[in-house]
Automatic annotation (TrEMBL), chain A:
It holds the Pfam family Rubredoxin_C. This is Pyridine nucleotide-disulphide oxidoreductase. It comes from the Bacteria. Transmembrane segments: none annotated. InterPro entries: FAD-bd_OxRdtase (IPR050260), FAD/NAD-bd_sf (IPR036188), FAD/NAD-binding_dom (IPR023753), FAD/NAD-linked_Rdtase_dimer_sf (IPR016156), Rubredoxin_C (IPR041575). It comes from Lactonifactor longoviformis DSM 17459.
UniProtKB/TrEMBL annotation, chain B:
It comes from Lactonifactor longoviformis DSM 17459. Residues 2-30, 85-114 form the 4Fe-4S ferredoxin-type domain. InterPro entries: 4Fe4S_Fe-S-bd, 4Fe4S_Fe_S_CS, ET_IronSulfur_Cluster-Binding. Gene3D superfamilies: 3.30.70.20. This is Carbon-monoxide dehydrogenase iron sulfur subunit.
């Protein structure tokens, strides 16, 4: 049996590890555009020069050798023929497979604004190759404009400010981190970024670009007519599944590659996991999908059930936040908030159950909240300050010593 | 693998386990009698909660068979050791994203109070011979080691 995996990110690597655990003898090949295994969540540490390329690796250096996994780094599959079970790579090589996992991740979305798509000094921040290009350009740049103030945009801002760059962030919403935080939580971070020298344009859209003769954007034009001078632009306006070349016969591509609950595409033996499916865009879910797909590739029937993906953690300037579930309250929702000098905590209740949690400052022991929200655990009968809930309120233990949630 | 088994009914909340944990992982040297309980370098990695029925609930890392923390780690800092079965944490690799804190279904994990850049995680006292200090310190046998 020959297993081929496209992509060496969270899903691809986890799948390979899972396959090797279950199949000692079979051949496993990873083909990845990435020439190094790296954690996308740590690219800002590369931009700030806190870590080098090697230190972005999230597997041991001898991972491929140790697990007897063949790896073709720096290669991209450009064509998938599902009837002959063959891939064509960008170097012309043909690769056959018995079972295939598409875990090609996603690509930065560059909106069709002015010359953003054509200009040579506009970058996304998604891959190590993006970070390398940004880092190189940063050597000759002092003013950097960032479009988007989500986690990627602010990661980029952090890394580049660390390098002494003048950073301006443009955000369409009226607050930064609009998906993750409420206004109050966002303000705390905004303050810290501004103290570090970052400038924000909130509630503003980049509408056009002004370029020089080299084809570089020198000014971003905002929707209120203001101009932002810049030597480089980083676009952090979301991603699109990396489906290029994957449109082999029978593969359904909508927003991402469509899969059933076993993460199999419409083609028998071809699976997809991670961001390329469009199911979710966060690391833990990509790992789980990689594991689930691999188990099914080996003949199990394991459904991917842990689909809850509205969760994130944030850590900038030593201030940690955790946000799970609904952030924006609707009518009839009950919001309970509490704060002190170092903490802001907010719980959103819907129909008597916790629907959303936002913790800023101390996030100790906060793991229970995801479980409470994801599984819609009723808490009304627990007579206790809601902020004081902990696992002792749901404590159960199994014979093998593992904990289990006990819900009355 | 070897796991610390918990018999919560026997726990009387003396917190000798927490003290032993702090002593085992303290950065400076000395005896239990001069252990600085306020020094955030000496945080305990196990927790005793007073529960709603008036008793105590020991919350110790289970080194789960399917560890959710490992499945959320984007830096490779958290790994499940295939031999010991323990969930190991490499502070140097940690990217301080705290996804693991969010993903532990039992709320065991927390960022460290000292730097806010690492997590507090049971290491089965691997640097003290691999025999958990908490177990040795428990006068009630509320926690004990078992091969599972």
């Amino acid at each position: 049996m020959k297993y081929v995996i496209l992509g060496a990110g969270a899903a691809g690597i986890t799948a390979a590890r899972t396959l090797r655990k279950g199949r000692k003898e079979d051949s496993i090949l990873i083909i990845s555009t990435d020439d190094r295994v790296h954690s996308r969540c740590m690219l800002h540490k590369y931009l700030s020069h806190e870590r080098d390329e090697k230190e972005l690796n999230f597997v041991p250096e001898d991972f491929f050798c140790e697990n007897n996994i063949e790896w073709m780094p720096g290669c991209t599959a450009v064509k998938l023929d599902t009837s002959s079970k063959e891939l064509v790579l960008d170097n012309g090589q043909q690769i056959s497979y018995d079972k295939l996992l598409i875990a090609t991740g996603a690509e930065s979305f560059i909106p069709p604004v002015g010359k953003l798509r054509e200009a040579s000094n506009v970058f996304g921040l998604r891959h190590l190759r993006d970070a390398r290009a940004i880092d190189k350009k940063a050597e000759v740049s002092s003013k950097i404009a960032i479009i988007g103030s989500g986690l990627v945009g602010l990661d980029a801002a952090c890394g580049l400010m660390e390098q002494g760059k003048q950073v301006t962030v443009i955000e369409m919403a009226d607050q930064i981190l609009p998906i993750q935080l409420d206004e109050k939580g966002a303000k705390e971070y905004q303050k810290r970024f501004e103290n570090a020298g970052c400038r924000f344009y909130l509630g503003r859209k980049a509408q056009d670009t002004l370029c020089d003769e080299k084809g570089e954007v020198t000014r971003l034009l905002l929707d209120n007519g203001e101009e932002i001078p810049c030597d480089m632009v980083i676009v952090a306006a979301g991603v699109r599944p990396g489906t290029v070349g994957m449109d082999g016969e029978g593969i359904r591509i909508d927003r991402g590659i469509q899969v059933d609950k076993y993460l199999q595409t419409d083609v028998l033996g071809v699976y997809a996991a991670g961001d390329v499916t469009g199911l979710s865009g966060i690391w833990p879910n990509a790992m789980k999908q990689g594991e689930t797909a691999a188990l099914n590739m080996m003949g199990s029937e394991v459904a991917y059930t842990d689909t809850f993906a509205v969760k994130n953690t944030i850590n900038f300037f030593g201030l940690a936040s955790l946000c799970v579930g609904v952030i924006k309250p609707e009518e009839k929702d009950v919001v309970i908030a509490r704060e002190d000098a170092r903490n802001y905590k907010r719980i959103l209740l819907r129909d008597g159950k916790v629907a959303g949690v936002l913790l800023q400052g101390d996030i100790s022991h906060a793991g229970i909240w995801q479980y409470l929200i994801k599984n819609q655990i009723p808490i009304a009968s627990i007579e206790k300050d809601i902020f004081e809930l902990n696992f002792s309120d749901f404590y159960g233990i199994q014979e093998n010593g593992e904990f289990v949630w006990k819900v009355s | 693998m070897r796991r610390i088994i918990i018999d919560a009914s026997k726990c009387d909340g003396c917190k000798n386990c927490s003290l032993a944990c702090m002593q085992a992982h303290r950065k400076d040297t000395g005896t239990l009698y001069d252990l600085n309980l306020l020094d955030t370098d000496n945080e305990s990695r196990n927790f005793i909660y007073k529960n709603r029925t008036g008793g105590y609930t020991p919350i110790f890392c289970r080194h789960c068979d399917q560890p959710e923390c490992v499945m959320s780690c984007m830096s490779g800092a958290l790994t499940k050791d295939p031999e010991s079965g323990h969930v190991c944490y490499d502070e140097k690799k940690c990217g301080s994203c705290f996804m693991c804190v969010m993903n532990c279904p039992y709320g065991v994990l927390k960022p460290d109070d000292k730097t806010g850049m690492h997590i507090i995680k049971c290491d089965f006292c691997k640097d003290a011979g691999g025999e958990p200090s908490c177990v040795k310190a428990c006068p009630k046998e509320a926690i004990y080691i078992e091969e599972v």
